Amino acid sequence: MLAAVMLAETKFGRVRSDSHAGAQGPMQFMPATWRAYGMGGDVQDPRDAIMGAANYLRASGAPRDYRRALHAYNPSRAYVNAILLHARRMKRDPRAYYAYYNWQVFVLTTEGERRLTGPK
C-alpha cells in the first residue's frame, strides 16, 4: 500500500518539488499533518516519510479500512481507487513494482515538458 501511495504522490520520490498546495517530500505531507504524524523525522527523507505515511494511514483506519485511510490521505475517490488498484497488482505480482518504478516520468516546467526518467 505504501509503495502505491509513493508511486501516486512522487513516482517513488523522483518528482521532488512541493505540490501546488504545499505538500512536501516523497510521500507529499502537508506541514501540519507531518508535525502530527511524522514522528519527528525529516519529511524529505524517504525512510522517515514512508514511516510517517504508515503512521498516518494506521491512525486513519488502516489496515482495517484502507479505503477510509486512503481517503483521509487524499480525499478523492479516483485517488483511493488508483492506490487500491496499484497495491493489488503489486501484491499479486511483485514484478509489477518494477514495472511501475520504471514508468517514464514527465514534468511540466516553465520551459515545457521535461522527462525525469526513462530511455533517452
UniProtKB/TrEMBL annotation:
Pfam families given in the database record: SLT
The Transglycosylase SLT domain, residue ranges: 2-78
Coiled-coil blocks: none
Matches recorded under InterPro entries: Lysozyme-like_dom_sf, Transglycosylase_SLT_dom_1
Name of protein: Transglycosylase SLT domain protein
